[in-house]
Amino acid sequence: MARRRTGSVSSPPLPTGDEKTARVRAMFDTIAPRYDLVNRLMTFGLDQAWRRNTVAALALPAGALVLDLACGTGDLSRLALRRGYRVVGTDLSAGMLGANGAATPLVEADGSHLPFVDGAFDGLVCGYALRNFTDLAATLAESARVLRPGGRLAVLEVDTPTAPLWRAGYDLWFTKAVPALGALLSDKDAYRYLPQSVAYLPPTPALRSMVGAAGFSAVGIRPLAGGLSQMVVATRTGAP
Questions:
Q1: Quick count: other Cβ atoms within 10 Å of Cβ 111?
Q2: Taking the CA atoms of the chain, what radius of gyration do you get in angstroms?
Q3: What is the enclosing helix (H) or strand (E) of 172?
Q4: In this prediction, what percent of the chain has a pLDDT beyond 70?
Q5: Maximum C-alpha span of the chain
Q6: If you average pLDDT over every residue of the chain, what do you get?
Q7: Which of 38, 101, 146, 180 has its CA 20 to 30 A from that of 188?
Q8: Backbone dihedral region of 71: left (phi > 0), alpha (psi from -120 to 50 degrees) or beta?
Q9: Is the pLDDT of residue 7 over 60?
Q10: If residue 150 lies in a helix (H) or strand (E), which one and from where to where?
Q11: What's the fold here for domain 5-162+191-236?
């Protein structure tokens, strides 16, 4: 099981397999009604600029068909629609889909078993969900499968700063203040779990290798705001 270390204190083991899938689904069902509010507060609204940059990184023509994987309440979907893309959203959580405010078709599905034909989409975006997939390698492979050759992938995810000053602020805010904020406004257990879930993310070199092995080329991973978040951009292998 995944285990995260903060200083010299070990966190409890994190769930894996079916237990993780069930916990993630139930957690997001629970926090869906106030998910956007807590997100804005915990990132001081910076996540909106990061999401805009993620959609822009697709660099696709208007009318392109984009899958919003783990679409949640629809932030990335709405931004993609504004750029003239056609969008389909999918999420594991029925609660999140129920709170989704984007005017797009919605499908409840596990990222590792997507109900779409091969090469159905021109682009795929995903926001803050890599660490929540039970089988990340299978989800990346499915992402490649449903993209046409030459299709574009743009993923936004949390990161852990390495610079001492950024890291100190991160530890104080993300591991202490965010759980308290979540407990006040939403669900205590969920917002205690979310900082711990960073332990599921592979290191940057391993993540780059995983994305490449799944069927992507030109894989780029860029830190945002000193490493508070990161953006993964890649192109589906094969001629367009």
A1: 23
A2: 17
A3: helix 164-172
A4: 91
A5: 51
A6: 88
A7: 101
A8: alpha
A9: no
A10: strand 147-158
A11: Rossmann fold (3.40.50)
